[in-house]
Structures are given as structure tokens and as C-alpha cells.
Amino acid sequence: MIKAGVYGGTGYMGGEAIRILLEHPDVTLSWATSRKADNISFSHPNLYGSAIDFIHPDDITPCDIVFLALPSGLPMEIVPDLISSGHKVIDLGSDFRIKDPLVWEKIYNKTHISPELIKEAPYGIPELRREEIKGARLIANPGCFSSAAILGLAPLIKNNFIDNEKIIIDGLSGTAGAGAMLHKSIHHPEIANNIVPYNVTKHRHTYEIEQELSLLNNNKVTVHFSSAYVPIVRGILDICHVFPKNRTSLEELFSIYESFYLNEKFVRIYRLPKDKNTSWQYKPYPWVSTVAGTNYCFIGLDYDDERNRVVVYSVLDSIGKGGAHVGIQNMNIMFNLEEDTGLKRIGAHP
Amino acid sequence: MIKAGVYGGTGYMGGEAIRILLEHPDVTLSWATSRKADNISFSHPNLYGSAIDFIHPDDITPCDIVFLALPSGLPMEIVPDLISSGHKVIDLGSDFRIKDPLVWEKIYNKTHISPELIKEAPYGIPELRREEIKGARLIANPGCFSSAAILGLAPLIKNNFIDNEKIIIDGLSGTAGAGAMLHKSIHHPEIANNIVPYNVTKHRHTYEIEQELSLLNNNKVTVHFSSAYVPIVRGILDICHVFPKNRTSLEELFSIYESFYLNEKFVRIYRLPKDKNTSWQYKPYPWVSTVAGTNYCFIGLDYDDERNRVVVYSVLDSIGKGGAHVGIQNMNIMFNLEEDTGLKRIGAHP
Amino acid sequence: MIKAGVYGGTGYMGGEAIRILLEHPDVTLSWATSRKADNISFSHPNLYGSAIDFIHPDDITPCDIVFLALPSGLPMEIVPDLISSGHKVIDLGSDFRIKDPLVWEKIYNKTHISPELIKEAPYGIPELRREEIKGARLIANPGCFSSAAILGLAPLIKNNFIDNEKIIIDGLSGTAGAGAMLHKSIHHPEIANNIVPYNVTKHRHTYEIEQELSLLNNNKVTVHFSSAYVPIVRGILDICHVFPKNRTSLEELFSIYESFYLNEKFVRIYRLPKDKNTSWQYKPYPWVSTVAGTNYCFIGLDYDDERNRVVVYSVLDSIGKGGAHVGIQNMNIMFNLEEDTGLKRIGAHP
Amino acid sequence: MIKAGVYGGTGYMGGEAIRILLEHPDVTLSWATSRKADNISFSHPNLYGSAIDFIHPDDITPCDIVFLALPSGLPMEIVPDLISSGHKVIDLGSDFRIKDPLVWEKIYNKTHISPELIKEAPYGIPELRREEIKGARLIANPGCFSSAAILGLAPLIKNNFIDNEKIIIDGLSGTAGAGAMLHKSIHHPEIANNIVPYNVTKHRHTYEIEQELSLLNNNKVTVHFSSAYVPIVRGILDICHVFPKNRTSLEELFSIYESFYLNEKFVRIYRLPKDKNTSWQYKPYPWVSTVAGTNYCFIGLDYDDERNRVVVYSVLDSIGKGGAHVGIQNMNIMFNLEEDTGLKRIGAHP
């Protein structure tokens, strides 16, 4: 059994890591931390009766792997010690994602105190970097919008299929993505009948997406990204508008995507005939609800042949395939387990 | 491996049975039926890519157990054949719940064509009828509101603790409980900002609850039940107001409930100290979200010592512990599996 | 023109008072206060561009009537000065509702510093106390659950029609009723898929309801009240279960209610034939959405003739007929305006 | 008093027209039609007690102005008669919006039987075509997404400020925009936790937007539009991504918009300093809830100076400023009333 710890257990990301590690057949959850160290059910009422409680971070014991669910800036402080004492580390946060420390420092407005660790930490998208992840000590788990956008655009970018300068992405997020910290914009009476734009320009995930897509394309890729909260809880949708260099067809697009993700268990290209029972206007696109609480990313495609635009719909759960679940997928790779161990949950409906 | 079939797979109850049978380690899902027999993803987009598709009911093959997720009136037509051809049957519907055929016929406004099977079918609440279920060929799986109410009140009724004549229950249901059939009251624009009362008197579940509680008490129990939809999707809450024969205390009440459900894995008495970080008004009561998609029933308690009233909050998922999941729990009992096999899911948060 | 001020403008009650006073044809809104005195659009984005901004409470100027939207305990500090300087006052809070100061002090856990004003302040339900309101200097505007319950039960209580000891009320509230103050239970990810019980016993409104119903009946009335938040924003529903002294009929019940509220503009007894286009289970009951943002209370009725129970559904908006709007109705009465001036809004659908 | 009729009263657009005409001080609502002609409260429970009921379309009587809230294809059948019998007509539908009949026939897949009326019917955006509207007999009221997009982009297009070829719009709609007709995608259990893309390419409103913006710019404008439903009820948000020909600044952008809409009562440029009380990530953008049920369009702006992209957020209510309310604004213009008569409602909060 792999001994695992969760550092920072009170937030939604930490809570989800705890939940799926408790259900993982090859893992013993050794501990989860909270500075307040009070009853875990106050933070996560779903865990009432689940035989785990918080410990104070000062009381952690050695284990095989540590998941960090911490605010940005804290991981870089504690990772060096964790690594040097023999732990493998999955940073679910953002401290090691951006490979250029100067860029990181500009967008996070902090000095990076462990820049030497940035380089060795693979950007943890298994579908693109499986081999690097296998041998790593430290994983920079990707951002949620970034995961959806990179998985959604990789086939086109890798095939140099589209205009690199005009990639427009509207990222729509459920409120779980805003976190457990109270905030006026996420107060139920405020948001329940609203759509709340935030980080409309220069969203931090923009830089991750540009970095990873540029690497895939061997050329600079510019991403125009904006985000908004919608009043759902779990899951994000990246709507990506891109412009093919040449005219194409929906058939060709599906073919590119299906071959790119041919052997991947957790990325599904959503291709269904039109449902005869629904009206003309509803082709089946992937719905965020179907991936909530799972490690799946579903991708849908459409093409405007009058105006030569491709629309890519990429959905995942920000604390699922865009967070804690993909962290466990990375752990499985690092420990030579079957990649889907403990991650086979099928999404619920409705 | 147990070979299982799901009869009536297009609705929410059938879809949930399919989902958890697909994940059950000791079950092979042989088939799921739909008269239209089209792509299963049109009914359940979560199952896209899950290597199962509908068959027409005429094409079913023999298996060990069949789950029926059918409108009332259909099970009584097909169960005799299924039983006589050696199947065990879990009826997730209502055809065999009411033990007096005359009462059944009055409230369902139909003639019962298999009354001889009613008697042999245990009312499938494992916590109360485990031994009967073990040897049964046919289970009458309980109604959702009924499960919550019976589990919530059994400790008090069994102990003859309360006034049998004044049991008032407000059952609040998410819209999944209304089913997949389109209906004006469940149209999103209509209900999203609403609370929609329905079946305000003589709700069919009333008769199940009265029947089972009367059996437990050996005396007639009268239940005043009303229901309403609230704009959540999964889960129901039964708010039960009852009046103790003598003055009591919260401490005594918890003690009664905790000893009654001492060894039960799926019924949890929600007893937490008040969270110091929340305001005076929020004691922790169980939340429906914490049991959505699981086989858990959480029960909370309160007592008004000025007016000698007990309030019991009982939450479960209408297609979880109040439906398909408890059906699988019953199957586990019938096949001598560990009772929680395939049912260990912890609820999600948020 | 009546000059009006709103004391405490940042919360939802204060914001609603501002909105409808701005639209009132016979009122000039002189000021609205906020200790922070910043841009009103931060508190109420709907008021962007509406030519009003907050002032500090120290800067208020004399006017004809002041609406108080303040936390409990503050009104009793400032009302004596406001009254003695010639203002009429509508307290939208709870300082003057409970007529026995000892009861008030017990349930609000404070010493009342203006007990002499309690007696002169009519409990502001116009349908029951129109004459007292006409001559008053100070109105104790009722609580939201209380308004719904008192209006919903007054016809039965006044007619001595039901058992005074077994009145059970489940009060369901939208989250606007929880206020603008951030709170974990109202954080969108927590409540969006939940029903959140709170104040399950000894809710402060219980005492108002008991006080007013006892006065109507000339006998002690006991109310068993519990409340819960549901994930809608505006509006409350009181589900009242009561037991007639003698058997009755739906026809008799409607007749009692319709004659009781015969000439009332803002209380509507919701009596519709069953919609032929909906299924058997949906009789038309009043929906909270139809009264959101208005001064209407809609009341629906049902009767279980098997068990002799009456169910009363009473809906209103907690900051509408249960708050700021009825405050303006009281103002209209005090200033001899047509009672519905500035209050004719029809609810929206959907 | 203007005598008005509403043709097609059962849908949400018709219901909203009825509601605001009932409250309009200079209008008498003569009739509203429904083929079923049953109780209006079954369609619009908010109108219970409002002294209006449906009549059959065969029973209509002459009046001054008729509002059509009909499915596409019906208006062109009845408008010629209405016009020739002296009625003014506001078509809230789409039969007269597209000025090229061949384009209309292609996208609506019907033959247009009144092409001669298309030309005389101004596309009814008062802010752009006030003079034409004043003298018109027939108004082609704009589509909801179109209104938001055209108002949101007109200042930039008119000033020839941006690249005409790369205008990307994500239109997000509440479910009221899907209409009262039952549909699986709008069934509450399906959409409540979802974002539902539809009409992802070649949405019919695309052609209106391109037509009107091209006229404003005197050059061909290409619009890349996609739409999705989000689980709110009222209101739409158009997120418009555009690319300035030259680098610009937020200050310059606000200046362009504020001067363009200087004297307009119903278009507000949402420009607020950052709220000191919110975190770094929330600048104030306009929220759809603030315009629900009103005739306002709020516009927000942002600029990415690293990548030279402008983001325009345009919010309105699809049956408010994007539907029935702007229809009444057009009526006011046609009848020489103050343009805001009967339209002064301030949005609610929360």
C-alpha cells in the first residue's frame, strides 16, 4: 500500500483528494492537515463517519507521496524539505507550472524561492507527458482551465492546423472553482441568477496554456482567454474558437481528434449522431455534469463551413480531471500502477 | 460473477442502476432495455463510451437477477414469468409494496393481476428486514420518501416513544425524483426559482409509511405527509415533526438512534458539536448533497424543550439509498455478498 | 412629496426599500445610509446609474419618515431620537415586535432600552391592524415567516376552527432571507444542491406568530415552527399543517378564506381548477416566484379528508410583502395615500 | 389611452408583454390571445387575479397596436391584414428582421409570403434607428442575442475601430430564452448543473448581427457566434472578443462608449472603480440579474494590453430589452410618448 498525505485539507481541492484517496484500493491515507485541526466534517460534511480527521501540519509523519492543496506561494516553501526527505510530491497548486521563473514572478507577484525545482517538475498532463511523469519526484499539476484548453487544442496545435494568433477561449467555471473561501461574488443570492466575469484578461492560466501549446507547436501560440463563473457547482467548460489554416470538415476534425487520443482512457471525443427525438437545434455536445466527480475530459467539436471557424468544447471537473483526480492519475503512473486504478468512477446522470 | 439485467433503462432510476452495476466488482451487466433501443448516450450522456447499449425488451437473455425500473402496473405483468424462469427480481417500482391488494388498487387505480406475489415480496429496507430479504425471490424496493421516513422514525416508533396520531412529514425532493418525463412543473424556467408543492395529501408513499410503521409499533400509526419539489436535482429530505409521550432530551434521542443503528453501515446519525466558526443559528444538520449518488441515509435530530416537539431530518438520494443503490444492497444480501460491495462511494463535497 | 430616508442601506432589505421608494410616485428619497458610505453600486449593482449614493449616518437630514433596515438592537437605540424629532418610523427589524419585553430579552439575549415604545408600535400587518397603523408614529414591521404564517392562519384562528396546540409550520426560505453577510451555509457551492435547516426549534419568529395568533383567538396558540434555506433567492413558503376541530371540506375552507380577505388587494386566495394539461399530481398551488419583488401574499389550501388535516401554503417575498414592501404599504396608510400606491408591481413569469 | 393587443400570449415573450402593458399608464390592454383560450394563470401564474383572460384569436377586436409573440412563419401570414386594417404592429418574432428575403428563406427554411413588408419594417433598435421607428407601421423587433451584440459593438464598428473579420461572440442565455415549450435540454434535472451549447454555428441571430453591423460600418462584417444555455432563468450575456486595428486603452474605450450612448436612457456603460472590499480578481462587470425584468442594457469593457484584445460584456433580458420591453419602447416612439413611459423599472437585487 502506498502511504499518502494531503497537505491542506480544508479546501475543495484537498477535500476531493481525501475522498478519492480514501476510496483508492492501493493507497492508505496517512493524514490530512488543517491548521485549525478541528472536526473534518465542518469542512467536508460528506466525510462524516469516514474514520479520518485532520492533524496539524506540525504533526505529519513520513509517507510515500504528498499531495499539496495549498495557496500559491506555500508549496515552494515546503517542497524542498519534502523532496529531500524522500517524498514524492504532487503540487495541486501553481508554484511549479510556469517554467520561466520571471514570468511566474510577474504573474504571481512573488519571488520564487525554489526556482531550481521548477525545471524538474513535469507539467502534469499524462496524455502529453507520461514518460516524464513516470520518473519524476515532483509534479506540477496543471490548472483546471489549462487542462481543458490544452487537451482540447493539442490535436490541432500538434498538427499545426490552425492560426496560432487567434485562439479565443471562454472559460466557464462552476463555483467550486472559486474555492471554499467566502466571497461576495460567490454568495448564493448574488450569483444564483448571474454570470460573473472575472480575470477577463491576463488570467494566470493563460500563461500555462500558451507555454504548453507553444511547446507542442514549436512556435509561439497566443491565447485570448477570459473566464466567468456560472451558477453550477462542479465542472468547467472551455469554449475554444479557432481558425483553420485551410478549409476543413467536421469529419476531418473528428478523425484528427480520435486518432490523437486513440488509446487514452480518460479523454473521450464526444461524437454522436443527432438525436432524432430532440429538435433541430440540439446536437449532442458534451455536458459538464457528465464529468463532475470523475477523471474524464469530454471533447466536442463543431465547424462553421460558411466562415471557416472550428469550435472545440472541452469539459472536465476542476477538482477532477482538472485537479485532484489527475493528480492521482499522475501518482498511479509514478508508482507503476494501472493508470486508472481508483479512478474508474462513471459520472452521474442526472 | 452475478449476471444482472435492467428492465427499463431510459429513466433516471434505470440509469442509476446501470451506472452502479457497471462499477460493481461481482456483477456483469448483461443487458439494459429500452423500447426505442437507441443510443444509450441520448438517455444518459454520462455513459458515453461505457461499452453498453440498450436492447429491446424482446431480446433479453437469461440472467441471475433482474432490476425493474418501470412505471407502476408493468412489473406485475412481467414478474411472474421472470420468477418462474428462475430469476431473482428487484422491483424498484411500487407494484408489490402495499401488502393489502385492496389498498393498492385504490391508490394506484388499477386491478392488481399478481396479488399472490405481493405477500412473498419483502418490503426491502435491509436495516429492518435483512433476514426476509436473504431468502427472497422478489423484493419490493421501497419508495424514496418512505425509506427516509421509515428509517428516520423507526427508532421512535419501535420504542413506542411518540404520539402515533400526530406524525407530520414534509418531504422535499430534488427534481430527479420527478423523473425524465418532461413536465411543465419541472421545466427549468418554471421551477428554478420556485418551490412546487404536489401530492399534498394522500401521497402514495403515505400508505407505505403507515403500513411499515404500524407493523413496527404493533399499533395503527397515522402519517400526515405532504411533498414539494425544490430546485435541486438529487436527493430528498424528510422533515418529520413528532411529539414524545413524555418529555425527553436531545441526549436521550441521540442515544436511542445510535443504539438502534449501531451496526449499520449505511445509516449515520449526524451528531456534531456546534461549529465554533459558524454563527449561533447553524447547528450542523445533515445535507442532502452529502448523500447524493450514494447508499447513505443521514439522520439529524433536534428537540424543542419548550414545546416538547422532536424534529427528525432524514436525507437520502431518491435513486440512491431510496432507489437503485438500496436495490443493489438487497441483491448483495440475496447473493451472500458483503452488504456494502459496490456501494462504498463516499458522497462528494461540494 | 413625502421625504423618506433609509437607515442601513447596504443589506438586501435596505436595498429593496431604496429601490421601491425611488419608484414611488409620492416619495422623494432624501437619503440612504451606509457606514462605509462608498459607491452604492458595490452593494446594489442594480442601482448603477440611479442617481442616489450612500451618505454616512452622521450626515442625515430631517425628513417625514425613516425606514430602519438595521441589525436587532440598533433600532431601539436610535428610534427615541427620531420620534422626538418628529419622524415617523418603520422599523423593518425586530426590536418592537414582541410586546412582552421579558420575552424579547430572552429570545434576543439583550436588555431592551426603549421598552416604553414597544407598546405604542402596532405590529404592522395592515390586513389585521389597519386602524392602529393609521395613527401610529412607529411601526413594528413583521418578520417574513411571521407575515406568511399569520396571514395564512388568521382566517382559521379567528374562526376558532382548528386545534390550537398542534400547528406545525415548515418555513422554507430563499437565500436573500439570509442576508448580504457572507456565511458558509450560503456560499454557493455549499447550498446550490442543498436544503439547509437552521433555527429548527425556537426560531425567533415563532414567538411573534404565537403572540399575534393568540391575540386573534383570545386563547393561547402554540406554534411548532422550523426553517430551512432552499437554493432559490427570493421568497418564502410557509407550509402550515393544522387539524380542524370538526371535519371540513376544501369548499368550506376556500369560503372562509375568501370572505376573510374579501376586500384585500394584496392577499390572494389561490383557487384554480386543475389544469387539464398537467398530470394528475399537480394541482395548482401558489409559487414563490410569482410574488418575488412584489407586495403580494398568495395563499393555497388543501384538505386530507381521510386524516382530517388542512394544509395551508402561504408565499410571499421576505423583502417584499414580508419586508420592505409592506413597510411602504404601512407608510401609505400612515400618510393617507391609496394603500397600493407605488406597490402595483405584478410578479414576473418566469 | 392606446388600445393594445397581444397575439400569442401563452409563451414567455407574450406573457412579459402582457405584464408590462397591464402596468403601462397610457395603455389599455384590449386582449391577449391563446388558441386554447383557457385560464391565463395556467400559463402565467403571476397573473392570477389580474383581471385579464385569454381570448381565442378569432375573437380579436380592433385596436391601435398589436404585439406579435408568435413562432416564426406565422407573423408574415397575419401582418398584411393587421396593417391594412389600420393596426400598427410590433413583431417580436423574426419574420421581418432579415432584409434579404433569400437569406431569410435559407436560414428559416420557409418561403416568405410577405416580402414587400420586409423593407418597410425598421429593425427595431431605438438607439440606432429612432427616426425610422417614429414613422413606421411595422417594427421588426430584434433578436435577443442580436440586441446585446449590436448595442455592445456599435460604438466600435461605427468608428471603424476593429478588425471586421475576427469578431467572436459567446452568447450565454438563461432558460427563459428557450421558451415555454418543454424540451429535454431544459428539463430541470438535465440543465440545473450544466452548460448546454446549442446553435454553435450559423445561429440565426448571426445573420441579423452581421446585417446590422455591416450597415453601420459600410463594409462587410463577419461575426463568429455560438450560444449556450446556462442554468439561470432570465437574461443573456454576450461576451464579445474583438481586435482593435491599433493599440488602445481602457480609458479610450470607455470614452468611445460613453459618448456614443451619451443621451440614451436604457444603455448604461458600466464603469466602476474596483471595489476595495473584493479580492484582486473581481473587477465590477455588469451582471445579468441587474437587468432582468427591465429595459436596460448594461455594457462592460476590458482590454488586454499584452495581446491587444478588447472584451465587451453586454447584458440584457431576452424578453426585456431584448424582447417585449424594447417593443414597448418602440411603441412609445411610434405614439410620441416619452420613450421611457411604463419602462422605468429598476432591476432587483438580489
Describe the structure.
The structure is a homotetramer of 350-residue chains. Chain A has 350 residues and is α/β, with parallel strands linked by helices. Chain A is built from eleven helices and twelve strands. Chain A has helices at residues 12-23, 40-43, 75-84, 101-108, 115-120, 126-134, 144-158, 188-191, 204-217, 250-260, 324-334, and strands spanning 2-7, 27-32, 65-68, 88-91, 138-140, 167-173, 196-198, 223-229, 236-242, 267-269, 297-304, 309-316. In chain A, the strands form two sheets. In chain A, strands 7-8-6-9-12-11-10 form a seven-stranded mixed beta sheet. In chain A, helix 1 packs across helix 11 and helix 7 packs parallel to helix 9. The mean pLDDT of chain A is 96. Chains in contact: A-B, A-C, A-D, B-C, B-D, C-D. The interface between A and D is large, with 56 and 56 residues.
Low-confidence stretches of chain A: none
Q: What is the overall silhouette of chain A?
A: globular
Structure classification of chain A? alpha/beta
Count of DSSP strands of chain A: 12
Strand arrangement within the widest β-sheet of chain A reads 7-8-6-9-12-11-10
Quaternary state of this entry equals homotetramer
Précis, in short:
With 350 residues, chain A is of the alpha/beta class.
